[in-house]
Structure prediction request, 190 residues.
Amino acid sequence: MDMQSKLILASASARRRKILTALGVAFDVVIPEVEEVQYALDARRTAHENAARKSAWCRARHPQRYSLAADTLIEFEGRCINKPQTPEAALAILQMFSGKTHRVYTAVAMAHPRADPELVLAESVVRFRSLNEDEIRAYVARVNPIDRAGAYDIDALGDTLMESYTGSRTNIMGLPEEPVAGWLKREGLL
Prediction:
């Protein structure tokens, strides 16, 4: 680990790394080893608690460093949607979303050294186009949707699935740039 940077991204997400890199901030990556919770009917609570757990894990091991931890969840028709673990599960999720709207929640824990994190929750609303089975199968074949919230990635042809969205595009990717950039500037990291 490069101990020169002040910030740790407590996440394995390539999309979160991409967003922070685009902001121009130096950071190191540490992957938290926590057991995530899921409240089947409360995506907000689930995202918030998982981000807080990841942050606590990171702060316990790196108390002198700033850290960012996040958790992204999809809510569809009042329930949390799990990340697919197989192509068949991804197909089923994308078929379920076809022609309908879902919500994307990302909770972010932004921590100053030796302090409790500031927790924010971003929400975006995504409406999918009506998709036929061939379009869904083609997407799954072209983009590996395994272990991605909602079985898609807005930054990897995800726009081809969508009719529209409101809220932050980077929130849909997994890290809402607006509150994160504001915090980084306030802390003198950006």
Residues 84 and 146 are 5 Å apart (CA to CA).
